Amino acid sequence: MDKPIRHILSLSGGKDSAALAIYMRDRIPEMEYIFHDTDKELPETIEYLGRLQAILGKPITKTSRVDNFDHWLTVYGGMLPSNHRRWCTKNLKLKPFEHYVGSDPVINYVALRADEKRTGYISTKPNIQTVYPFREDGLVKADIFRILEESGLGLPQYTTWGRTRSGCFFCFYQQKIEWVRLKETHPDLFEEAKRYEEQSVLHGEEFFWQESESLASLERPERIAEIKAKWEASQARKLTQRKNLTLVETLGGVVNYEEIDEPEGCLICSI
Ligand code: SF4
C-alpha cells in the first residue's frame, strides 16, 4: 500500500513562514509544523514561535539535531561559516529537514510571495514536492502583514530593535547596523559572537563573521558612530527614492515597492 502524503511547513521564526502557517492552518489541518533550532537563535525568535504555536493550536516540532553548531565548528577546523562556506545551513537546517522527512512522500510548503524573486530551497529528493501557496494565490507583502495583524501575532519582537531577519544571532548575513543593534540590545550575545572570532584565530587563520572586519573593530565607539551615520543617510536616500517611485507610479509606471528592505540570505533560516 502507498504511504500517505505528509504535509510539512518549516518555520524560520520569520514573518513570512509564520503567516503561511496561519494561512494554511484551516486549509490543511494535518499540516506538520517544524522548526530547525540551531541553538543559536535570538530569544525573540523562540518567543515568537511560542505565540505562533498557541495560535495554530498544535505543536511546532523541533527537528532533532545530530549535533550542534559547536560540534560542526570543530569538524570544520574552527572555520566560521560565511556566504561562501555555508556549512551551517547544510548541517543545522537542511540535513535535519531531510532527516525528519525520511523517505515519506511529502509536500513541502514554502512562504515565497508573489512579489519577490528570491528562490527557495527545492529539495532534490524525489519524495519531496515543494509548493508556494502565497505565490500561487497571488499574495504580496501587504497581505502577509494583514494575516499577521488579523491573527494577533504581529511581527517578531526583534524587528522593534532593527533586526530584519530570524536565524542565528551571529548570522553573517546581517548588516553592520544590525551588529550594532545586537550589541545594544543583547550585549551578551554580541560578546559570544566576538568570542567565536577570537577563538577562530587559534586555528591559524582569522575568521570574522563579516569577512573584512572583526567585531572588536566594529564595536569601537567611533566606528559605531560611523555605521549609524551611514545607515541614517541610506534610510534618507531610500525615503527620497520611494517618494520618486510614488510619482512614477502615479504617472502610470509599474513599480514594486515590496522588493525594498527584504532581508538577504538563506531562505530556510530567514523567510
Ligand atoms: S541563520 Fe545564518 S548562521 Fe544560522 S544557519 Fe542560517 S545562514 Fe547559517
UniProtKB/TrEMBL annotation:
Checking InterPro entries in the record gives:
PAPS_reduct_dom (IPR002500), Rossmann-like_a/b/a_fold (IPR014729), Sulfate_adenylyltrnsfr_sub2 (IPR050128)
Q: Provide the protein name.
A: Phosphoadenosine phosphosulfate reductase family protein
A Pfam cross-reference name: PAPS_reduct
Keywords per UniProt:
Plasmid
What's the source species for this entry? Candidatus Chlorohelix allophototropha
Keyword Flavoprotein present in the record's keywords: the answer is no
Output the PANTHER family linked to this UniProt entry.
PHOSPHOADENOSINE PHOSPHOSULFATE REDUCTASE, SULFATE ADENYLYLTRANSFERASE SUBUNIT 2
On the tree of life, the source organism's domain of life is Bacteria
A molecular function (GO) term: catalytic activity
> What residue stretches are annotated with the Phosphoadenosine phosphosulphate reductase domain?
7-114
